[in-house]
Amino acid sequence: MFAFLLVVHAIIAAALVTVILMQRSEGGGLGMGGSPSGLMSARGAADFLTRATAVLATLFVGFSIVLAVYAATRAAPQIDTSLARTPPATQTAPATAPAPVPADNAVAPVQPADNSAVPLAR
Predict the structure, then answer these.
(1) Residue 12 exposed, middle or buried by CB count within 10 Å (0-12, 13-18, 19+)
(2) For 82-117, how does the pLDDT look when each residue is reduced to its tens digit (9 = 90+)?
(3) What average pLDDT does the chain have?
(4) At residue 18, what are phi and psi to the nearest 5 degrees?
(5) Are 57 and 87 in contact (CB under 8 A)?
(6) What's the whole-model pTM score?
(7) Model confidence at 45, in pLDDT bands (50, 70, 90)?
(8) Using an 8 Å Cβ cutoff, are 49 and 17 in contact?
(9) Count of CB atoms within 10 A of residue 56's CB?
């Protein structure tokens, strides 16, 4: 049902674009060009393309609302986990005893860090 409504919505959108592009440009933005045959005159309002534009725009907005409500209320789809990757196992470093502190205040040599958890260090 959702796919059908979506296809109808796309057809309405294409028809609306076509009807809008077929109209004559009046050069005033929204038909406010000042000519007597503009959008606000009786002749312009009765024009077929103007009426078709109004009808298609109303249908487009109506279908947009219906599709939004339908998408929000339908059941949530199940997530397919058949291709899900398993996370790599983390390696834990062996527990080491702390280094003994020398009795005199001499600087102890620094031991290199255990980089076994870094993949490129292997």
Answers:
(1) buried
(2) 887 777 777 666 666 666 665 666 666 667 667 666
(3) 75
(4) -65, -45
(5) no
(6) 0.49
(7) very low
(8) no
(9) 19
Query: What's the distance, Cα to Cα, between the start and end of the chain in Å?
Result: 55
Whether the predicted pLDDT of 4 surpasses 80: yes
Closest CA to 39 of 56, 25, 55: 25
Rounded to 5°, the CA angle 23-40-58 comes to 65
- Supply angle C-alpha 38, 44, 45, rounded to 5: 125
Radius of gyration of the chain (CA): 35
Matching residue, tokens 């309405």: 12
**Residue in the block written with tokens 């390696």:** 91
Q: Where are the beta strands (DSSP E) in the chain?
A: none
Residue 60 has pLDDT above 90, yes or no: yes
Return d(Cα 111, Cα 99) in angstroms, integer. 9
In the block, residue with structure tokens 């725009």 = 57
The residue written with tokens 């009807």 in the block is 19
Per-residue CA distances from 109 to 97, 101, 103 (Å): 16, 11, 14
